[in-house]
Every structure is written in C-alpha cells, then in structure tokens.
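Ticket #4471: structure export looks truncated?
Reporter: QA, pipeline team
Priority: medium

Steps to reproduce: submit the single chain below to the structure queue and open the exported record.
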Amino acid sequence: MNEAINRGKKRVETLEKRQTDVDKLIASAPLFATQLSELNRDADMVRVKVTQLVSKKAEAEITADLEGEERPSSYRVLGERASAGDAGQPNRSQALLLALLGALALGAGGLHRSGAVGQVAAGARWRRATRWRCRCWRACPS
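Actual output as written to the record:
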C-alpha cells in the first residue's frame, strides 16, 4: 500500500511539473503572438517589395528591348542647331506684325458679323437715291 501511495505521489509531482510547464507556455503565448504578427507584417512588406522589383525589372527589360530596336532611328540629325542666343529672345518685329494682322482681321470680322458694312453701304445708296435730301420720317443719318 505504501508503494501505491509513493507511486501516486510521484504521479502527482510529474503532473504538477507538467502543469507549471503548461502555465509557462500559456503566459508566454501573448509574446509569441506579437512576434508572429510582426513577422507576418514583415513578410507582407517583403512580398510587396518583391512584386514591385519584379515589375520594375520587367519594365526595364521591355524598354531595353524597345531601345535596342529603335536605336538607329532615334539619333538622326534632322537639321542644324539654332544658336543659343536666338532661343531665349523673342522676335519683336514678327510679334508686332502678327498682332497688327490679328487686330485687322478681328476688326474686319467684327464689322462684317455685326452687319455694319451692309448698313454703311445701304446708307450710301439711300443718300444717293435721295440726292442728299433729308427725309425726317425716318431716323436721319445725316
């Protein structure tokens, strides 16, 4: 009987030791959970960076292939280069001439659209027809 009691006490000691080990694991679980979440986050960031690098590499290969095909045609000289002094200074005489022509075109177009050209011509015909006599039954243009 003592032997059975000793075996029971040993069994209780091993179970208590196992229980303390399980309690330690339970206590350390939140620490492992935070470490696991940090590792998952880092793994996600690495995945995103890898996909970006792969896409950049593919784009670089495509542009290198396109540049290799177009290289002979892309460096042709089409004409002489203008002097550096001409590039930054406007041609004032051409600008004034264009402004004058534009003003004339707008003025003539405005007269034609408003009908003023036709009114002037009609007024002259009316004066010729009436030989400069004033007819006050209408608004007198003279």
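Status: closed, not a bug. The export was complete when the record was re-opened. Leaving a note from the reviewer for reference: Residues 116 and 134 are 21 Å apart (CA to CA).
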